[in-house]
Every structure is written in structure tokens, then in C-alpha cells.
């Protein structure tokens, strides 16, 4: 946070939401389950994937904003400048409600159906239970990562499956990978945030048990997530038919490249938190499954159905935005 504090000007808000690291790019994880649903014969057409991504992005923004509003004192003490923190209480809560309502409107307008609406509503309710009192499960040990991961699984895996009417095996392949990946993501941030959280009185799991003890279940979760993501990549390759070589080859090259990158990065005097805390196989597989595999699947789909070219182009833009942030990654 700068000397003048956080800003809530429209340009700052638009920049954060559209191209910021905590903006709509956070919902990039929905594209692998969504592209696999469409590859497996789910309902296609140009509107469905765009609306599904929009609803997932609305969930992500609602979860982020509700957490920011609830954590305003802690974020201010830790020097985290959030634009919503510059708003008065009623306006901050109103801003958090906007993406919730917009997501529901997208589900209704694009014909998501009752199952899709239920998945979206359940994802939002779990996100609220994670951040807000009286439950505020983020301060209740492992209930925090479990609640957040479950909420993300509903938004990123169950919602596109219900929306597209894909086969049940797609849900079985995507749910474990998404759930465990998001668990690792949150658990990792709790570990590297432990000192700041302890200083501000945030009772996360890492604060409760200590940094070293928190690292052990993080390692287990990363291992399980790697297995689930490897299975997800294999299912994607099988579903791609003649394109299986591209899916498998892209995933293998990504994991190999990440292994070499992590080995090199760990030899540096001050490696980033990502490579210091997380194993190479997890970093490689999460990059492969949620970035490379959907890129291949969406390219295949766009070549077969021109109406899906907009979805493929949007995913490419999100990849560019994320790559820009990751090249200079510094956790804030």
C-alpha cells in the first residue's frame, strides 16, 4: 500500500478486475473442466463456454471481495492495498454483491438450468462461510482449506459439467484435481503468510499449528494433487482422440520444463516462495493441466466448430495476462 492508501477510482477497479493478478484471470482454472466437458460431447455453442467462464469469474471476484471486506483491518496492517478497502462499509458490501448477482444473471440468461444455478449458489455460500462470521471457517484449522477448495470445485468443475450436460466420468476426473489443486494453493499462501497473519491476529491453520507443522500436510496435499492432475491429463488425452499426442506431449514437455526450472531456481540465493515450498511435479502438472491441456483442447474444438473460436481467443488472452504476472511473480 502506498503512502496515500488504497484507491477506489474507476480506472483502478477496472484495471484490477480486467488485467490484475486478482481479477478475472483467477478463473482460468475453469477452462480445463469446461474444455473437457465440451470435448466429451457436452453442449457446445458460442454462448455456453463464455457464460460459464463469466459465472466462474463472478464467483472468484465475489469470494475475493468478501474476503477483502472481512479482512480490511488485517490487510491494512499488513500493507495490502485493496481498492475495496477505500470504500465505506455499505459501498464495500454492495461491491461484493455485484459479482454474485451478475453470476446468477448469467446462469439464468444463458440457460444454465437448476443444477447449474445450484452449483453456483452453493459455491458462493461456501465462499461466504470461508470468509465471513459467524462461521469464518478460514480461522478454524483445516476447515479453511477444505471449504475454499470445495467452493472452487463447485465453481470450476461442477458448474461447467452441469451447464454442458457432459458425461459423469468428466466430473469424476475434474473434481479431485480441482479440489486438491485449490487446497494446495490456499495452504501454500497460509504457510508463506504465517508471520503476517500471526502479527494481525488471523488464526489460520498455519498460525495455529506453526509454520513447520503446516508444511507437512502441504507436502501431502501437493503429492495427492499431482496424482489427481496426472489422471486428469490422461483422461483429457484419451478424450481428445487423434489429438491425444498433442495433449500428452504438451503436458509432458511442460512438466519436464518445470522440473528443470525448479532445479535451476533452487540453486539461486533467494528462490521464490513457489519453488521453495512446492515440489516440481505439482508445479509442472498444475501448469500443464490448467493451461496447456485446455489450450490444446480448445484449439481442437475451435477447428471443428467455428462458433468456439471466441472461447479459444479469450483463453489465449487470459494466458497472456497470467504470463505477464508470473514472469515477475512477487507475492503480495
Question: What features would you describe in this structure?
Answer:
With 332 residues, the chain is an all-alpha fold. The chain has one domain (10-327): Farnesyl Diphosphate Synthase. The protein is 75% helix and 0% strand. The protein contains 15 helices and no strands. The protein is globular and about 55 Å long. It starts with 9 loop residues before the first helix and ends in a 5-residue tail after the last helix. The mean pLDDT is 92.
Rg computed from alpha carbons, rounded to a whole number of angstroms: 19 Å
Give the number of helices.
Answer: 15
Q: In whole angstroms, how far apart are the ends?
A: 10 Å
Poorly predicted sequence stretches spanning 5 or more consecutive residues: none
Tell me the series of helices and strands, N- to C-terminal: HHHHHHHHHHHHHHH
For the record, the CATH architecture stands as Orthogonal Bundle
Number of separate domains:
1
- Main β sheet profile: none
Shape descriptor: globular
Amino acid at each position: 500500500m502506498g503512502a496515500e492508501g488504497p484507491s477506489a477510482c474507476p480506472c483502478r477497479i477496472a484495471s484490477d478486475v480486467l488485467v490484475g493478478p486478482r481479477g478475472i484471470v483467477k478463473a482460468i482454472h475453469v477452462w480445463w473442466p469446461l474444455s473437457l466437458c465440451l470435448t466429451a460431447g457436452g453442449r457446445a455453442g458460442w454462448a455456453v463456454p463464455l457464460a460459464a467462464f463469466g459465472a466462474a469469474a463472478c464467483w472468484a471476484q465475489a469470494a475475493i471481495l468478501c474476503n477483502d471486506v472481512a479482512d480490511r483491518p488485517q490487510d491494512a496492517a499488513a500493507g495490502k492495498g485493496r481498492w475495496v478497502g477505500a470504500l465505506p462499509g455499505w459501498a464495500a458490501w454492495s461491491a461484493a454483491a455485484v459479482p454474485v448477482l451478475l453470476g446468477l444473471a448469467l446462469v439464468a440468461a444463458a440457460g444454465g438450468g437448476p443444477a447449474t444455478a445450484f452449483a453456483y449458489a452453493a459455491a458462493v455460500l461456501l465462499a461466504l462461510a470461508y470468509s465471513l462470521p459467524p462461521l469464518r471457517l478460514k480461522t478454524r484449522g483445516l476447515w479453511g482449506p477444505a471449504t475454499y477448495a470445495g467452493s472452487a470445485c463447485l465453481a470450476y468443475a461442477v458448474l461447467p459439467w452441469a451447464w454442458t450436460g457432459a458425461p459423469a466420468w468428466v466430473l469424476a476426473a475434474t473434481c479431485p484435481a480441482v479440489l486438491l489443486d485449490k487446497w494446495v494453493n490456499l495452504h501454500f499462501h497460509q504457510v508463506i503468510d504465517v508471520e503476517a497473519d500471526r502479527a494481525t491476529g488471523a488464526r489460520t491453520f498455519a498460525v495455529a499449528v506453526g509454520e513447520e507443522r503446516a508444511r507437512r500436510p502441504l507436502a501431502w496435499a501437493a503429492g495427492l494433487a499431482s496424482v489427481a492432475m496426472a489422471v486428469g491429463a490422461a483422461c483429457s488425452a484419451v478424450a481428445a482422440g487423434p489429438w491425444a499426442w498433442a495433449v500428452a506431449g504438451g503436458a509432458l514437455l511442460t512438466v519436464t520444463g518445470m522440473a528443470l526450472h525448479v532445479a535451476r531456481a533452487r540453486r539461486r540465493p533467494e528462490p521464490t516462495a513457489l519453488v521453495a515450498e512446492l515440489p516440481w511435479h505439482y508445479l509442472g502438472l498444475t501448469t500443464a493441466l490448467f493451461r496447456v491441456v485446455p489450450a490444446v483442447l480448445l484449439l481442437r474444438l475451435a477447428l471443428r466448430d467455428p462458433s468456439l473460436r471466441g472461447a479459444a481467443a479469450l483463453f489465449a488472452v487470459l494466458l497472456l495476462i497470467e504470463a505477464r504476472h508470473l514472469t515477475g511473480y512477487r507475492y503480495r
